[in-house]
Design brief:
Blueprint (H helix, E strand, L loop, with lengths): L1 E5 L13 E5 L1 E2 H11 L1 H7 L10 E5 L2 E2 L9 E2 L4 E6 L6
Parallel strand pairs: 1-7
Antiparallel strand pairs: 1-2, 3-6, 4-5, 4-7
Helix pairs in contact: 1-2
Length: about 90
């Protein structure tokens, strides 16, 4: 049982250059913890000093933002895709 975690271009340098990583299915929190354990530098970009997800890091399970689901407790079924989407600041 595995899920695919997609890594955005801006963070791939912290994930061994990988565009995606296959990890065991579980909750979003468990998956991100396993990802951070495998790539500690990436973890520092996902979590703040208090150990919570940084506010500019958006996590999607399929097409659903986890903030509209169960947050990091959101279960991720086998075969699903978890996407890490950093918020882009900008404007005029």
């Amino acid at each position: 049982m595995a899920v695919t975690v997609t890594i955005p271009t801006a963070l791939r340098q912290y994930a061994g250059g990988n565009a995606s990583v296959s990890l065991a299915a579980g909750s979003v929190g468990q998956i991100l913890a396993a990802l951070s354990e495998q790539y500690p530098q990436l973890g520092r970009h996902l979590y703040n000093e208090q150990g919570t997800l940084r506010s500019f890091v958006n996590i999607y399970v399929g097409d659903e933002d986890i903030r509209h689901l169960q947050g990091i407790e959101t279960p991720v079924p086998d075969g699903e895709t978890v996407s890490i989407i950093p918020a882009i600041a900008g404007g005029v």
